[in-house]
User: Fold Trimeric intracellular cation channel family protein from Roseibium limicola.
Amino acid sequence: MLLQFLDYIGVAVFALTGAIVASRKGLDGLAFLFFATMTGIGGGTLRDLLLGVPVFWTLDDGYLMVCAGMSALMWFAGPLVERLGKPLRWADAIGMAAYCVMGAAKAFAVTQSAMVAILMGTMTATFGGVLRDIVAGEKNSFLKPEIYVSAALAGSALYVGLRMAEMDSWVAAGLAASFALILRGGAIVADWSLPGYKSTVDK
Amino acid sequence: MLLQFLDYIGVAVFALTGAIVASRKGLDGLAFLFFATMTGIGGGTLRDLLLGVPVFWTLDDGYLMVCAGMSALMWFAGPLVERLGKPLRWADAIGMAAYCVMGAAKAFAVTQSAMVAILMGTMTATFGGVLRDIVAGEKNSFLKPEIYVSAALAGSALYVGLRMAEMDSWVAAGLAASFALILRGGAIVADWSLPGYKSTVDK
Amino acid sequence: MLLQFLDYIGVAVFALTGAIVASRKGLDGLAFLFFATMTGIGGGTLRDLLLGVPVFWTLDDGYLMVCAGMSALMWFAGPLVERLGKPLRWADAIGMAAYCVMGAAKAFAVTQSAMVAILMGTMTATFGGVLRDIVAGEKNSFLKPEIYVSAALAGSALYVGLRMAEMDSWVAAGLAASFALILRGGAIVADWSLPGYKSTVDK
Assistant:
């Protein structure tokens, strides 16, 4: 139930970020729809393909409707959304937090491997956004020093660790998603970042 | 039968567009082969992966031969092809029209969901070309205002609607592909486009 | 056994190339980890998805550990690795040689189609690197005239040909991987390249 809810939240806010990018580029209504859908379901689609389970949105039309709803919201009420502050970065952060837990939980249930679950949580939390940025021709999260991928990794790892310690899945999911969100929030508010590699050789 | 034929047509003309891009970039013969193959089979591959059915070209060597044939055609008779006018845009349009019907038909048969079938038709009709453009470092269709993705969506939706109204699959496929082609053709000939989003906030 | 070994080698050296790219871009430790992992397992993941078999690294944690080890190596001993000469290009060459044989072998065993096996060997030997270059925003191998994709194709084709001639799989794998490596090595040392297409029409 909580996981189902996190899943919808993750899809919805990622879809919103896709629609925001489409709006900032001045694209047409269909591009809104496709940027929203691609960003919303991208990560979970990759997760399901890699796990060899049926792709989640082919079984439940609700996910596609959520994506369509988010692009409509942005198309008709874009200025309202933009007035919220840094809506793109915050929606992205919430989506990442929800998705890393979902990805790790599903992968852990299927493979029972902690390592695979952590990687899958991280990949699927970041893949939708990276796909959005590549198709939009923008710089993607892997190339920026700010904490983003690391927050997804930390959230996935915490979830898997808590589950291995037999903690209840609701509590574990809540704690892990909050942890990922706090780390990412710190990066947005206070510019937290990881140190970059300083090469000592000429290239 | 008609669907089988549309499938080969879609693969062939998309493969041709891949080879045209390779030729315009002055790439070598193998790059012709791979741009042709990637563009030709990209959309259908994504469709089959998402539907969880065997990838079509792993079952029938004919598709890969068609892609190889198209790169050879372009390599040896490129100037002839280029003299046809706007071969890249028209081949792309025909491929898109054929592919959106095929994608929607296969997805509708497998999932019975109209929404999934429409998305799948649209995605798989546009994915090969987007992949081609990303690998080639060109601006992709999602970022251009002209009617392209919307034509694929309209074709997919018409096919699914006609099939739900119990129309014969041949007639439905023919009508839907023609509709998509006319919409896209209008964009090529008369610059039809969808209105872009006009933001009222500063970024 | 030999194939298993080639598989680890391919993953390891591709992972190293991912980490080298991360280091040259001055990215953080996690970006090292993800560039290494994405490049290391990318090709094989695509191969397994297309063949409809379980994705290899979901069954054996060793592959992910190898990727983690390679990013650690580069993070802590990067200058040492860089002092080896052209480590990026050579590691990439070895990975390509090992991966094209692995990809062709697995695809041939599953589909029994020589054509599919050759394409799969070539695609999976080049996909990890292309993915790395697209995410890093660099020019990818398909767009460069030097021999790279063609070496992977030659290696895959030789392996399949030798196997069809009933040659022992170890010998065939060794010969094919060496052949691919020699072709690519020639491109690195002596700038071997394929002739590009010379268009005779204005664009």
Summary: Chain A has a mean pLDDT of 83. Helices of chain A lie at 2-24, 29-51, 62-82, 87-111, 114-136, 149-164, 169-190.
